[in-house]
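Please fill in the sequence for the structure shown.

STRUCTURE ENCODING:
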């Protein structure tokens, strides 16, 4: 029994879905606090996020009653774990990891950071200051297959809900992405694909860009083209030298990644092919 129930549904669109769901909720003597729905007319898919209050006596019975009201092959999730488990992957840049660990320390992340994995030891000492395990796994002198095999061996025991690539500068193979499908979240500068490579801010500075930004997205086989969760930008001008541009960019990256993690931990993000449905409120 519980005081609040979260219902997440994805299914084929049909007439009367909202009414049918509301009737089932009322039958179980639950009160709808918020109900946010969306219909993707192109794919004819229906998405809904329902938060209910009241004492639920049986999740199994509620699930069964909902299935009777929904089209075949519907996906229903009832009250997923509220405190998600995450593992962070890093290389050398500290800004995104630092933001995550500080939020985790003060319990504002709405998730638990189980471990950090890095292909350099640069951030090991910093991570361990927060009493978080740090796994060092060098990519040098290893094939991609060997490296990813060892990485999977580290990740699997944690059974993380999400694996956050906090400036993890390694391209992952389709096989690895498939193994952790729907769990890999990346943050990158919005210059891609216009400015590809290791020095995007320098390329952008040399071109005199007037807008910088960042994008948090799910990782797929297509590099930096997975379903987008959050994006943000900042207007700059000619007075920004390279250092100031990088600093501003890192601040945006931190904010965007933090917002994406918050949306994910609150179960506000649903995948819809190569797009996302994000119920912000």
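FILLED IN BY: designer on duty
SEQUENCE:
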């Amino acid at each position: 029994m519980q005081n609040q129930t979260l219902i997440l549904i994805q299914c084929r669109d049909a007439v009367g879905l909202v009414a049918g769901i509301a009737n089932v909720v009322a039958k179980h003597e639950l009160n709808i606090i918020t109900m946010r729905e969306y219909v993707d007319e192109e794919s004819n898919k229906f998405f809904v996020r329902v938060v209910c209050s009241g004492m639920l006596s049986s999740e199994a019975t509620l699930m069964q009653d909902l299935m009777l009201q929904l089209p075949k092959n519907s996906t229903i999730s009832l009250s997923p774990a509220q405190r998600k488990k995450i593992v962070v992957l890093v290389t050398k840049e500290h800004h995104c990891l630092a933001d995550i660990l500080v939020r985790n320390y003060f319990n504002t992340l709405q998730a638990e950071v189980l471990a950090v994995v890095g292909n350099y030891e640069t951030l090991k000492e910093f991570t361990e200051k927060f009493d978080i395990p740090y796994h060092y796994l060098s990519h040098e002198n290893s094939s991609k297959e060997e490296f990813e095999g060892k990485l999977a061996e580290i990740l699997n025991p944690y059974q993380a809900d999400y694996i956050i690539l906090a400036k993890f500068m390694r391209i992952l193979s389709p096989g690895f992405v498939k193994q952790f499908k729907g769990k890999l979240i990346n943050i990158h500068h919005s210059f891609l694909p216009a400015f590809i490579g290791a020095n995007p801010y320098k390329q952008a500075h040399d071109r005199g860009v007037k807008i910088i930004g960042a994008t948090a997205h799910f990782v797929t086989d297509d590099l930096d083209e997975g379903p987008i969760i959050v994006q943000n930008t900042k207007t700059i001008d000619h007075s920004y030298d390279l250092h100031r541009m990088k600093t501003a960019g890192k601040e945006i990256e931190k904010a965007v990644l933090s917002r994406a993690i918050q949306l994910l931990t609150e179960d506000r993000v649903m995948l819809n092919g190569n797009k996302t449905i994000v119920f912000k409120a």
